[in-house]
Amino acid sequence: MTEMNSWMGWTGNSVLSMLVVLFVAMILLYAARVPMHGLIRVAGHALSGPMRLGARWLATMAEEMKQRNKAVLLAHGRLETGQRVDREFERIGILVTRDLQGYPTLQRRLLEEVTRLEEDYKKCGEVPPPPPDWVEAVAAVAQIKAGGGEVVQKILVEIRDSIERIHDKAIAEYRRAYQTRHGILEGFMPYWRSLDKTMKQVDRKVADLQESATAVDAHMEKYKQIVAKTDESETTLTNSSYTQFTISVIVLWIALGGAFINFKLIALPMSEMVGAGDYLTASLRTSEVAALVIILLEASMGLFLMESLRITHLFPRISNLNDRTRRRMIWISLVLLVTLAGIEAALALMRDMLIADKQALLQSLATAPAAAAGEGWIGRIPTAGQMILGFILPFALAFVAIPLESFIHSSRTVCGVLAVDFVHVLGFALRVLGILVRLASRALLHFYDLLIVLPLVAEQLVRSVRGREPGEKARPLDATDKSASPF
Amino acid sequence: MFNRAFLAAMLLAGLTVASAGCVDSRSQAHAVYVLVDTSGTYANESGKAQVIINYLLGTLQAGDSLAVARVKSRSFSEKDIVAKATFDARPTQANAQKRAFRDQMDSFLRTVQGSSYTDITGGLIQGAEFVNETGAGRKTILIFSDMQEELDKVTVRNFPISLKNIRVVAVNVTKLNTDNIDPRRYLGRLEAWQKRVQAAGASEWKVINDLERLDAIFAKS
């Protein structure tokens, strides 16, 4: 403090010393105004320029990434939609082969049934024989009066009897004819039913075909939009990827839970196989790693099985294998998976035995009397449960391949979108920072001028005095004016 | 692209296993040497020694080592080791070894006879030798004694000993009649042992008198 004051008090008055120092500093700063302004401007440009450039580059890069993402997304969408269309066509092909292959038979059957119905209908149309022509003669005879004597009466009785006989005969014939027609009509029924059934079948098959055709139309429409690279199709595909990503993450977490349970089941018994005293790291036993390897092997076998079954398409080489080799691969994966599941079930049983052995040892070491162990079939439920879990979990893990594929495919889109957003945010931040630096450099120029305000005012006064002289004009002071010079 | 990622993952897994293979598995093992004082009236405490040994048998894992030795007039001898075992890596075998160890200890503690003098230092030297030979990463010597060392005239133990990186735990340090008259004797005795053990390079010195809290034997202070 004393040293500080020593140079300030050389005049004997510190205030005066301070004023002198300030004055000298002001003069020096005023003299260095132009180079200092230049320096501040250059520094401002040197900082803000690259930032602006960086922001612009990031914006371009984000746009490029977006385009690349779009291309990948659309290519994937095209492939997926193409596969769906293929599948629909395959379905239609099967439908057409199955249904239309039998169509000539169906048509022949229909024609036969229709012909038969027509024939029967014609038969029904045959009317019974009309009443004899002499009915009118009988009516005339009936008008003859009964009082004509015994002979006439006898003739009339005979005529009546004859007519009644003939009438009965005609009625019987008429009834028989109608009975025959009823019989024919009754014979229609099975044909009608068969016809109805056949028609319904045809109707159903046509409806199926129509439904498939509608689905194909929808897929084709989507495919067209993807090929046309419309924004709508991009949005739809991105949203679909987000959904797939979320679902696959949830399912993978569930699978991870299953794998953890699986690990717990076999970690202890694995120590009996590979030893419990070996450590890979300070806290990681070899037996635990071995258990993990078994679980990963199961997942791999499941993956190969799914690939061989062409349910997933993570390894194009597997799906491109010929059918014979692929079938062999299915069997090999399945056998290995079953073997591993069997090993796990055995390990689960061993785990139970090891725990029971440890428990027995601890009880024998304890001073307290041993607690009665659960006996009978109830006591065996946990063991059986462990064994069943040990056998089932590997197969359940095998299906992880499906969400895994979904996750891998959708994560490309999701990560791409997030990366673009991140680059955008980075670009924006750089741009804002560049503006702030530019503004700061301007503020610094003003601040510099504020420090040398007295010489500047003096300069302005001198200029204004000169400005009154003819031919010269007073100029206002501007710190940001690059041409301003005190000299 | 997927193939490349898969290869990278495989490479990483391989490197992890290769680097992990370099870790010394013995360094994770635990070696415990128990010194049981059989001198004078302390021989009557043998029942408590059994509790401690049973606790150790229940706690130690496969691959760990355990030895029980008695402290008598001169304890620097392998002959004083009553039972010792390095437990098998397989849990079932380790359990069988533990059962055999317990039986061995039962018969020893039933027939234990008191000695005239107490050579704790000799026992400590012998114990250090044993735990160091096992190559275990964690080494502990338990002293089941009143910590009152009494040597005959010819036995020499007043020299510096080495207990480097060994934890020394005194268990069930009973108070003598003289300690009851002047507790400073008891406290001074413990302090003297602490100084000696720490001067010998022991990583830790601990006294546990409450047998209900045996879990403190392996707890880090």
Question: What does this 3D model show about the protein?
Answer:
- Chain A has 487 residues and is mostly helical.
- Chain A folds into 3 domains: 22-90 and 404-466 and 481-487; 102-227; 239-367 and 378-399, no CATH class.
- Chain A has helices spanning 2-8, 14-31, 33-101, 103-125, 135-142, 150-227, 231-274, 286-308, 316-319, 323-365, 376-398, 401-451, 453-468.
- The model of chain A has no long low-confidence stretch (mean pLDDT 83).
- Chain B has one domain: Rossmann fold (3-Layer(aba) Sandwich), CATH 3.40.50.
- Helices cover 41% and strands 18% of the residues of chain B.
- Chain B has a 6-stranded mixed beta sheet with strand order 3-2-1-4-5-6, sandwiched between helices.
- The termini of chain B are far apart.
- Mean pLDDT of chain B is 83; it is low at 1-11.
- The chains are: A mainly alpha (487), B alpha/beta (221).
Class from secondary-structure proportions of chain B: alpha/beta
CATH fold naming of chain B: Rossmann fold
**CATH first level of chain B: which class?**
Alpha Beta
N-C termini distance of chain A:
39 Å
Order of helices and strands of chain A: HHHHHHHHHHHHH
Write down the overall geometry of chain B: globular
CATH superfamily of chain B: von Willebrand factor, type A domain
Protein structure class of chain A: mainly alpha
Largest sheet of chain B: 6 strands, mixed
Helical proportion of chain A, percent range: over 70%
- Measured distance between first and last alpha carbons of chain B: 52 Å
Quaternary structure: heterodimer
- Tally of individual domains of chain B: 1
Report mean pLDDT of chain B, rounded to a whole number. Answer: 83
Q: What's the number of extended β-strand segments of chain B?
A: 6
Strand content of chain A: under 5%
Q: What ranges of chain A have pLDDT less than 50 throughout 5 or more consecutive residues?
A: none
